[in-house]
Amino acid sequence: MKIAAVIVAAGRGERAGGGVPKQYRDLAGKRVLARSVHRLHHCGVFMSLIVVVNPLDRDHIDAVEAELGFQLDTIPGGATRTASVRAGLDAAAKAGAEAVLIHDAARPFVSTDLIDRLVTALDSHKAVIPALPVSDALLRVGDGGGMGEPVSRDGLFAAQTPQAFHLAPLLDAYAKLGETALPDDAAVIRAAGGEVELVTGEAENFKLTTPEDFLRAERMLMSEAITVTGQGFDVHRLEPAELMWLCGIEIRAGLGLVGHSDADAGLHALTDAILGAAGAGDIGQHFPPSDPQWKGARSDAFLTHALKLLKEAGGEILHADLTLIAERPKIGPHREAMRARVAELTGLPLQRVNIKATTTEKLGFTGRGEGLAAQAIITARLRP
Question: Of the candidates 224, 256, 277, which is a domain's last residue?
Answer without folding.
Answer: 224
